[in-house]
Write a structure and sequence with these properties.
239 residues; alpha+beta; elongated
């Protein structure tokens, strides 16, 4: 179970890193080469900046100046990604405390509860990141395939795929942590049953010699009586 918890922790931390990378990235969507007349320049848009680059290699970014002029789906994606990062951060801390290979967290039962709490945090982080990337991708695809949309069309950026991958890793890590505590609870029950059976067998062993001693004493008394009779008989013979 400790190996499974280490694997779950690494998966959750990797998912958290991918989520942070997707959050700060400026490549949530890029201009479509099919609808763009000038292919030597392109536009990249993210949750925080709008960037324009060209074939020479120069890239100029401009941040979103005010939140009031942003569209609703961008604000929702921001909130979901920030929530995903916060949940993943606390999930990694709780996972460190609840893992069996660490010496903090108290008893095994308390560590199992903390590990379960960390797994729930990782799962919620993955769901938030997955929802944010899916909402943004749905907006891009709906605009791209809309024949009445005459503005600049965009394609899916690399940040969306990074966010989807990070969300899958977080969900897998949280699920493995939740399964690992089930094994710890079953092992604790087995230890309790083993201790109970050991105590019962010890009580039987401790009580057995007394009864055996009684039976031995009872068996020895006739022998002693016969020996005393033989001795008495010997005396009478000599007399």
């Amino acid at each position: 179970m400790s190996g499974l918890q280490i694997l779950a922790f690494l998966s959750g931390v990797a998912g958290l890193g991918a989520t942070i990378g997707a959050t700060v990235s400026n490549e949530w969507r890029a201009t479509s080469r099919a609808s763009s007349v000038i292919t030597a320049t392109w536009v990249l848009q993210g949750l925080w900046n709008n960037c324009a680059g060209n074939a020479i290699g120069s890239l100029h970014c401009r941040p979103h100046h005010t939140i009031l002029q942003l569209e609703g789906y961008i604000i929702a994606c921001r909130a979901l990604m920030i929530s995903a990062v916060i949940l993943g951060f606390f999930g990694s801390i709780f996972a460190l405390v609840g893992m069996k290979c660490t010496k903090i967290g108290g008893s095994d039962k308390n560590k199992a509860r903390i590990a379960c709490f960390a797994g729930v945090h990782f799962i919620l982080s993955g769901l938030c990141s997955l929802s944010s990337c899916s909402i943004y991708a749905h907006r891009i695809t709906s605009e791209f395939f809309d024949p009445m949309f005459i503005s600049q069309k965009y394609e899916l950026g690399a940040a969306l795929f990074i966010g989807w991958g990070g969300s899958v890793l977080c969900i897998l890590g949280g699920t493995m942590l939740c399964f690992s505590i089930a094994g710890s609870f079953t092992s604790s029950k087995r230890e309790v049953n083993y201790i109970y059976r050991g105590a019962a067998s010890h009580s039987r062993i401790s009580s057995y010699p007394k009864g055996q001693a009684k039976s031995v004493n009872q068996r020895l008394t006739p022998d002693n009586s016969t020996s005393s009779r033989i001795q008495h008989f010997d005396k009478n013979v000599y007399v």
